[in-house]
Specification:
binds alpha-D-glucopyranose; single chain; 5-stranded antiparallel beta sheet; alpha/beta; binds calcium ion; about 550 residues; 16 helices
Length: about 550
C-alpha cells in the first residue's frame, strides 16, 4: 500500500456561511475563518475543505457559481482569501476547495451568453434541447423538485438543470468547456491550494440519448439517476482531467459520487488508474430512507450500518482508499442521527467518533461535530433556509397534501439546515457567531453546547476528538492497518480489529443506551494489551476476554501478538 500525506491526514469541512462572521452582517466569511485558524490548529486537523466561496447569487448557498475566479461578495475579497491560505499554510494546515463543475449559476456569463441565440459562441456550453409537443424533452425530475428542464423563451428551447433552475448543467461533451474548466483549476492550484472536493462529479457524463426515467412510487416525474450518474464517458473525463491538471500537483482530490457501487468507486480511486484519490459514497447516508427517499422513514439496525461500513472497508482495501464521514453540510448531525443527543449526548458523540476514526481511510470532521452539535428542529418552515427543504415542503404539503406535521418531523430529522445552523462559539448572544442577526437561527442549545465550554472541560468531546487525531498521527496502524469485523451479528456492539504486522487494534463500540456484554472471539490471540482511548474512566488491567460495555461506551486496545 502506498503511503501518502493525505492518507495520514484528518480533514475538517467548513461551510463558510455558518462558520464565523467577522463583520456583523450575520453571514460567516473568510476573515472569520482566518480568525479561527488557531482553534483548528489546536484541534490538530491537517486539511480544511472549504465549501464554495466563489461569486454566487446563492440560490443554493454557493453551489451555484457565477464566477469561478472571484469571491462571493458576502465572504470578502480575493485578498482575504490569499491571506487565509497564507496563514493556514503558516499553521501547517492545507486548504482544499469545492469544485462545482457539473453546473454553474444561470448568472454565469457563459450561461447569459449561451441563452441569447442558437449560434452564440457559448451555446454548446450547456445542454439545450427542443421540447416534444410543447412538453420538456424528457420526464426527468430535478433533485430539487419539478422538471429538470427549463423552457427558455429567447430560443424556444429547454436547458437541463439536475438541481435548481438557477443551476444549468454544463455540457461536458464540449472540449472547450472541459478545457476552460481545466484552466480555471490550474489557476487555483497555481495560487497554492492543496486540492479539490468535487461536487457531484459523477454526474458530468450524461447518456446522450436522454431517455425517460422510471417514475418511482411517490413521484410524478422520472428518475434521471441511471442516465446521469457514472455515465458513459465519466472515467475518460476524469482521466483527462488528471492528465491535464491533477497529476501536475501534489494535491488531494475527493469526488462526491452518490449512487456508486464498489466497482465504480474502485474505478475512480484505484491508484493504478490515475483518476481521483477518494470518493464520498452515500450508502450509509441513505440508511433509513423510506418510499419517499429521505422524507420518509424505514427502520434500520446496527447490523445494517456494519454491513455497509465493512463492505466499503474491504472493498477499497486493495489499491483504493476510503473517505470516512458521519455527516456534512447536506446531512443531519451524527449525534442526533446515530447517537443519543439527550441523556447520552457526550458519551455517544465520543463513541461515534471512535468508531469512525479508527477505521481505514481519511476521516472528515464537519464543523461543529467536534463539539457535539445537534440537529435543530425548528418549529416552523419559515425558519428553514435550504432550497431543497423549502421546495420539498411545498411539493409534499401544498401539492401532495402530506400532513404538515409529518413533513416537519421529516425535515427536522433529515433536512440539510440541521448542519447549517451557526457554529456555537460561546454562550453569548447568537453563540458568538455574529454580533448582527444571523442568516439562519442559532440552535437554542448553544448555552450548553459551545466551543468555549468544550475547550475549558478536559473531558470534553472536543478534547476527545483532539486525542483521536493525535493517536492517528502517531500510530501507523490507525492509518494503514487492515480492517476486520468481529461479532458480525451483534445488534448492540460494533467491534472490529485493525492489523498491521505484529500489532492489532481492538475497537469496541456500544451503540445502545444500556449495558452490553462483549466477548472476545477465541481467534484473537495476544500477549499484551494497552488501552489507547476510551470514553469512560476505566483501569488498564481489565480482562478483555469479557467486558460489560456501558451505555454508548467505546474502547480501543492495542494488542501485541
Ligand atoms: C452537492 C452539494 C449540495 C448541492 C448539490 C448541487 O450534492 O453537496 O450541497 O446542493 O451538490 O450543487
Ligand atoms: Ca460577515
Amino acid at each position: 500500500m502506498n503511503k501518502t500525506w493525505w492518507k495520514e491526514s484528518v480533514i475538517y469541512q467548513i461551510y463558510p456561511r455558518s462558520f464565523k462572521d467577522s463583520n456583523g452582517d450575520g453571514i460567516g466569511d473568510l476573515k472569520g475563518i482566518t480568525q479561527k485558524l488557531d482553534y483548528l490548529k489546536e484541534l490538530g486537523i491537517n486539511v480544511i475543505w472549504l465549501s464554495p466561496i466563489y461569486k454566487s447569487p446563492n440560490d443554493d448557498n454557493g453551489y451555484d457559481i457565477s464566477n469561478y475566479q472571484d469571491i462571493m461578495t458576502e465572504f470578502g475579497t480575493m485578498e482575504d482569501f490569499d491571506q487565509l491560505l497564507q496563514k493556514a499554510h503558516d499553521c501547517g494546515i492545507k486548504i482544499i476547495m469545492d469544485l462545482v463543475v457539473n453546473h454553474t449559476s444561470n448568472e454565469h456569463h457563459w450561461f447569459k451568453e449561451s441563452r441569447k441565440s442558437k449560434d452564440n459562441k457559448y451555446r454548446d456550453y450547456y445542454i439545450w434541447k427542443s421540447g416534444v409537443n410543447l412538453q420538456p424533452p424528457n420526464n426527468w425530475e430535478s433533485s430539487f423538485n419539478g422538471s429538470a428542464w427549463e423552457y427558455d423563451e429567447s430560443t424556444n428551447m429547454y436547458f437541463l438543470h439536475l438541481f435548481s433552475k438557477k443551476q444549468p448543467d454544463l455540457n461536458w461533451e464540449n472540449d472547450t468547456v472541459r478545457n476552460e474548466i481545466y484552466k480555471m483549476m490550474k489557476w487555483w492550484l497555481n495560487k497554492g491550494i492543496d486540492g479539490f472536493r468535487m461536487d457531484v462529479i459523477n454526474l458530468i457524463s450524461k447518456d446522450q440519448m436522454y431517455p425517460d426515467g422510471e417514475i418511482r412510487k411517490g413521484h410524478s416525474l422520472g428518475n434521471f439517476a441511471p442516465y446521469s450518474f457514472n455515465g458513459p464517458r465519466i472515467n475518460e473525463f476524469l482521466k483527462e482531467m488528471n492528465k491535464e491538471v491533477l497529476s501536475k500537483y501534489d494535491i488531494v482530490t475527493v469526488g462526491e459520487t452518490p449512487k456508486v457501487n464498489i466497482q465504480e468507486a474502485m474505478n475512480y480511486v484505484d491508484e493504478k488508474r490515475n483518476e481521483l484519490n477518494m470518493v464520498f459514497q452515500f450508502e450509509l447516508m441513505g440508511l433509513g430512507n423510506g418510499n419517499h427517499g429521505k422524507w420518509s422513514n424505514a427502520p434500520f439496525k446496527l447490523t445494517d450500518i456494519k454491513k455497509i461500513m465493512t463492505k466499503w472497508q474491504k472493498g477499497l482495501e486493495d489499491g483504493g482508499w476510503n473517505s470516512l464521514f458521519w455527516n456534512n453540510h447536506d446531512q443531519p448531525r451524527v449525534v442526533s442521527r446515530f447517537g443519543n443527543d439527550k441523556e447520552y449526548w457526550e458519551q455517544s458523540a465520543k463513541m461515534l467518533a471512535t468508531c469512525l476514526h479508527m477505521m481505514q481511510g481519511t476521516p472528515f470532521i464537519y464543523q461543529g461535530e467536534e463539539i457535539g452539535m445537534t440537529n435543530v428542529a425548528f418549529k416552523s418552515i419559515e425558519d428553514y433556509r435550504d432550497i431543497e427543504t423549502i421546495n420539498a415542503y411545498k411539493e409534499q404539503v401544498n401539492i401532495k397534501e402530506k400532513n404538515p406535521l409529518e413533513m416537519m418531523a421529516a425535515i427536522n430529522a433529515r433536512g440539510r439546515d440541521n448542519a447549517r445552523t451557526p457554529v456555537q462559539w460561546d454562550e453569548s448572544e447568537n453563540a458568538g457567531f455574529t454580533t448582527g442577526k444571523p442568516w439562519i437561527k442559532v440552535n437554542p442549545n448553544y448555552k450548553q453546547i459551545n466551543v468555549k465550554s468544550q475547550l475549558e472541560e478536559p473531558n470534553s468531546i472536543f478534547n476527545y476528538y483532539k486525542q483521536l487525531i493525535d493517536i492517528r498521527s502517531k500510530n501507523q496502524i490507525v492509518v494503514y492497518g487492515i480492517y476486520n469485523l468481529i461479532l458480525e451479528d451483534n445488534e448492540e456492539l460494533y467491534a472490529y480489529t485493525r492489523t498491521l504486522g505484529e500489532e492489532k487494534l481492538l475497537i469496541i463500540c456500544n451503540f445502545v443506551d444500556r449495558i452490553s456484554k462483549f466477548n472476545l472471539p477465541q481467534s484473537i490471540k495476544y500477549s499484551s494489551q494497552k488501552l489507547i482511548i476510551g470514553n469512560y474512566k476505566i483501569s488498564n488491567g481489565v480482562n478483555i476476554k469479557s467486558i460489560e460495555m456501558k451505555p454508548y461506551e467505546a474502547r480501543v486496545y492495542l494488542l501485541k501478538c
